[in-house]
Amino acid sequence: MKKREFPRLGEMVWQEELESGLKVAVVPKPGYGKSMAMLAVDYGGADRSFELDGRRYDIPAGVAHFLEHKLFEQEDGVNALTALSERGANANAFTSPDMTAYHFECSDMFFEDLELLLKFVASPYFTDESVERERAIIAQEIRMMEDDPDDAMYYALLRCLYGNSPIRENVAGTVEDLEKITAQTLYTCHRAFYTPSNMTLVVVGNQDPGRVADMAGEVFRDSLAPRARRIPPKAEEPFPVESRTVREMDIGAPMFLAGARTAGGLRGRESVRHELVASIALSGLLGSASGLYRELYDRGLINETFGYDFENTAGCAHLSFGGETHAPDEVCLRVFEAAADIAARGFDADFFERRRKTTLGGAIRALNSFESICYNVAAGTFAGYEYFDTPGIIDAITQEEARSFLSTYLTPDRCAVSVVNNKKL
Amino acid sequence: MDTVTELEIMRSVRLTCVRATRFKTGCLSMTFLAPHTKKTAALNAALPYVLRRGTNRCPDMESLAAALDDLYGARVEPAIRKKGEVAALGFCADFPDRAFLPGNIDVLAGVAGIMGELILTPATFGGRLRADYVESERENLIADINAEINDKRSYAALRLVEAMYRGQSYGVGKLGSLADASRVSVYTLTRHYKEIISASPLEIFYCGAEEPERVAAVAREALSALPRAADRAAPRTAVDTGVPAGKVRHMTETMDVTQGRLIMGFRLGEIMEKPNYPALMVFNAAFGGSVTGKLFMNVREKLALCYYISSSVDMHKGGMFVSAGIDPDRESEVEEEILRQLDAIARGELEPWELESAKRGVISSIRSALDDPMGLESLYLDRTILGARATMGELAALCEEVTAEELAAVARSARLSHTYFLTSGEEVSGR
């Protein structure tokens, strides 16, 4: 394996692409008692149309997530989640629009756990009966999300921002989508996307990198598995398809989430750089250190629930901001005015440098979380960048980039707003 | 192993220092321990947020944020926690370790200094906390209480605890009631503030690369002006060891939801007279606290009756709660199954692998917490409030010794007291 060191962060990583095409990365963590492994697949909820063996498939929403649930079940009847937990490992999995990942954290018996993780992800086993049972469980999960005002508000915003990208639908799908998913759908998607060259294994902790690679090589020998060709959704204009959506729920106070699409589809360092520019620009405009935040907070227009976010996933990128407020339109208006003001005059130089420091501090803080390291290393592998290069990119970001981000994307015509009102009002 | 140093650095100010060099960040918290009562809950909850608005030196959030930005985005957040009848209020901070920052900047001293300012020299007007800050945080507190309904799962838990401990301090939520929150004023809060800083024991926790002596010196310096009238004993929680009289109380509330949220409240009863914490932890894992527990394995995996189901034991109070997200039509079925599983443990129906998995899970979570500064902070705070003496390593070793009979004893002692079911329907019934 090849070693790369990042002295500025006090980190190093061992990396190798195995013969099967599986990429392996091991990040040693001296002094820690725990270790974590994550096996990530470059396949998520937004991968809905693809070609496999000369045939086109358009699958319902929720398949990647359903598959994630079902893979834990093994042919010998043992549930892998139970087996890992029996040994004290804390195992879980998640599905995002562009990634499915299986992971565990443990403080001993690491290689036994790793072997099981690799094996259950590599060997699908479903029966109609077990798919049926899982359908009931996932239906409850979907209902739980439907009752969550933040989730409802978020997906309503995405449906305003995107006309045909699958990202506008919940990763878990709807209860109706679930009805269309069979054991056969799951097998097809596993065959299409769960190939070694479409996966990355990341280990964080004090484990022998060579042994990790050997074990992964043992389980994933076959590199000739079929590989699907993704069919991207039709390109669309970067403007919202709807500018406003309102719904009523049983909540305590009205809330809103506004958002705008930015530069989606970037790859490699450009992609990370875009994320970091967004983070610096948005913290300068909307973060708790900004004049605007103080003004809105002092005027009682926002409270500590106010925040902002930036997402860069499945070829889509968008910013969002929001929180509880009685006056979403007034908050949005002030945000646009303040963005226009920065666009015209630029950031104060000292203030901008403090934003850079905070962003660097955040990147260092993230290295405490094994899960965050696993996720970011895997995401970097799929998108073609080196996660640990982040500080250098932060150093290089200019004030002009941040200013231009705000002037380009934070304008009324690019933004949509999703509001959830209290039913009782 | 990390070195843990415990020092009394000033009168009624205790420092717990976990020296560890593996982390990228340091963690520092300063927490006052005060009684949680109906009268004080809203004041306790409002105070850290009002103090966080500004200090003499940094009179508003913008200048405070600038000071923290200069410390590479150090975060100093207000915190209010309810542990039995103890309110733990103060600030939690995390900040990048100086080893990874340019210029060897002393982040710890900077953060401790800002925390000291927040506690000792808040922005005032005419000797009182600033009226605009108090009013705005009172409104935020009211909004927070109103927003409890947003998360249906935790809302259901709050309603259950309220009913189960009606008339007792513990029945009051950590944010207090709406009525008490709306009565928070400059006068009441300033008086409360002065009482807290002069009379309440202060717990300081640090985890990071700095030597304990240096942390103690930095903390002493930051808090040199702290008024310490006399030694104060930490407030204690009243552990509930009684069994409920009469029948189980069932409550149902309807709301515009698609999933039903069931929560069942048990009193652990006489077993809490001399609580065996390791046994309680392993019991919870075996019953519903883990994915190998009986509830997950049976109610979710075997019967597919829910998406989430879990149990939790409140060591500070002696209660146990089971929470599940279920189909609105299947409440009684789920309830019966949960009781059946508890009964199974009480009758000693616990496979060796179930006990072993529960132990492995608990021990592993203790070990994982040792690798998480904020997790450690929380463990040590619980330990202080419980008055427990065992170190985390000793606790893990004790969990290893727990027997099936000890779990059965916990299960036999537990009595269902209240259930609360939030289910679909048009009208919001009264709170």
Topology (SSEs and partners):
The complex is a heterodimer of chains A (425) and B (431).
Chain A: E1 2-6, E2 11-17, E3 23-27, E4 35-41, E5 49-52, E6 55-58, H1 63-71, H2 80-86, E7 90-95, E8 100-106, H3 110-122, H4 128-146, H5 149-161, H6 175-179, H7 183-193, E9 199-204, H8 209-219, E10 229-230, E11 244-249, E12 255-261, H9 268-286, H10 291-298, E13 307-313, E14 316-324, H11 328-345, H12 349-366, H13 370-383, H14 390-396, H15 399-409, E15 415-422
Helix pairs in contact in A: 1-7, 3-8, 9-12, 9-15, 11-15, 12-14
Chain B: E1 3-10, E2 13-19, E3 25-35, H1 41-51, H2 61-70, E4 75-83, E5 86-96, H3 107-120, E6 124-125, E7 128-129, H4 131-146, H5 152-164, H6 178-182, H7 186-199, E8 202-208, H8 212-222, E9 249-255, E10 260-267, H9 277-289, H10 294-302, E11 306-314, E12 319-326, H11 331-346, H12 352-370, H13 373-386, H14 392-400, H15 404-413, E13 415-424
Parallel strand pairs in B: 2-8, 9-13
Antiparallel strand pairs in B: 1-2, 3-5, 3-8, 4-5, 6-7, 10-12, 10-13, 11-12
Helix pairs in contact in B: 1-4, 1-7, 3-8, 9-12, 9-14, 9-15, 10-11, 11-15, 12-14
Described by the principal axes of the CA atoms, the overall outline of chain A is: globular
CATH topology of the largest domain in chain B: Cytochrome Bc1 Complex, Chain A, domain 1
The assigned structural class of chain A equals alpha+beta
Low-confidence stretches of chain A: none
The CATH superfamily label of the largest domain in chain A reads Metalloenzyme, LuxS/M16 peptidase-like
CA-based gyration radius of chain A: 22 Å
Order the strands across the largest sheet of chain A as they lie in space: 1-2-3-9-4-8-7
Helix content of chain B: 40-55%
Cα(first) to Cα(last) distance of chain A is 62 Å
Count of all domains of chain A: 2
